[in-house]
Amino acid sequence: MTNTKASLPFFVLAAWLFCLAVPEQALAHAQLVSSTPAANEMAIPPPTELRLKFSEGVELKFTKVTLTGRDSKAVKTGPAKLDPSDSSLLIVPLASPLADGQYTVNWQAVAKDGHKTKGSYSFTSMK
Predict the structure, then answer these.
(1) Structural domain spans, the chain
(2) What percentage of the chain exceeds 70 in pLDDT?
(3) I need a surface site. Which of 16, 93, 105, 111 has the fewest CB within 10 A?
(4) Distances (CA, A) of 14 to 20, 85, 111
């Protein structure tokens, strides 16, 4: 007969050591680390594109960005692309100049490791 109380600390220790041994990259998700325009920033002059920098490379095919303005109306954007030299920098061109007002960026990113993250931020555009 085994003593489960005595083996419990062994399993806890083994699980803790396993977590330390797993590379941080394997547990990571693509988090938004910066953006242009930045969150809660006053963008003067209005931006012609959005730039979202993630903590790791993202899969363009599965990464989406939407921009909404006044009354939660969608703002037309061009096709998103990755910076040719940096797969963690997503560039979203704007189809036309932004009017003055507050805008919300909603994003959903899928990292190269397949993990999905999402979030949003706002900025104000001013001529």
Answers:
(1) 29-125
(2) 78
(3) 16
(4) 10, 40, 29
User: What whole-number distance in Å separates Cα of residue 24 and Cα of residue 59?
Assistant: 19
At which residue do the structure tokens 């899969």 appear?
Answer: 59
Give residue 101's region: left, alpha or beta (phi > 0; psi -120 to 50): left
pTM greater than the 0.85 cutoff? no
- CATH, domain range 29-125: 2.60.40.1220
Nearest CA among 117, 121, 125, 127 for reference residue 58: 117
- Separation between Cα atoms, residue 20 and residue 29, nearest integer Å: 17
* 91-117 residue pLDDT tens: 999 999 999 999 999 999 999 889 999
Residue 28, pLDDT score: 63
